[in-house]
Records
---
Amino acid sequence: MSRTAEKVLSILSVVLTAIGVFVSFAALALFNYLKSDTLIKEEFEAEILLADPTLTPDQIEIIYGVFGIVGGFMWLIIISLIVSLILTVIGIVNIWNNKNPKLAGIMFIIAGLTAGIISLTSILLYIVGILCFTKKPPLINESQFVDDKYDGTMRPL
């Protein structure tokens, strides 16, 4: 049975997830650069103090602590996308020659959950997972089972 739709959608999902991983790494690198540059840090503090001159240095440090939390959250997103990428590749290997479509469907759905609940990539993976579960192999032609001595007529019990 041909599983062309599953193959195409899963490969498209791998490409989109890989692009997401690269963009996330680039955003994290830019964020860490902006966070560590002293000139940008001084400009940021000056802007904060212009907006609210009543801020204390402790409150400014709390803001920098939030930046650290954001950096950790970005790492969580990157790890989640890498897990999704690995599970999708495992699903593609299992679906390629119609080896194990049920396992591939499970892998695709879990990969969709780790790629983001309602992102384009996860929606594609949900569709592929559902196709893996619902697409059934074609029925075997009954004429192969008819015994030649009965000539296709009704057989006795």
---
Amino acid sequence: MSHPLSRQDTAPSLRPRDCANVLRGALLGNIQDAAEAIGRCAANRDRETLFALPALREEVMTSLDIMRESALALPEADKADMPDVPWARWEAMHFSHAGSARERRNQVWSVIHELVPTTLQGVSRYRGLLCDGRDTEASRPRTAPARQAS
């Protein structure tokens, strides 16, 4: 007796266009999820508190890496549909060990409060448009970083 899913005529087949849509959705979802995680980490925290807590600092840095890698992998056509997102900044971003720890913290703090919210807004709007323009719960940002005094 054969398993019904093992039959060739019933096995689902993804066309290249379907695969591109799946990839686009995954990359945009990665960006949105990582931006929201950063927002939760930074919410109501000042710079010193955020960087003093190792778990928060690690979560932020991991999420920034996810956002950057997903931005790099996103097709140029999709980036062109989101001109308000500064894709070049994501592509050029790196947090090297050059410079002082204070300079790196300043750079990360700036990205958290300027680049991440702009990107989250643009990606969320685009994802909403991909869902036939409906404002869905999945396409709305849940948490954006709040600007704190330094």
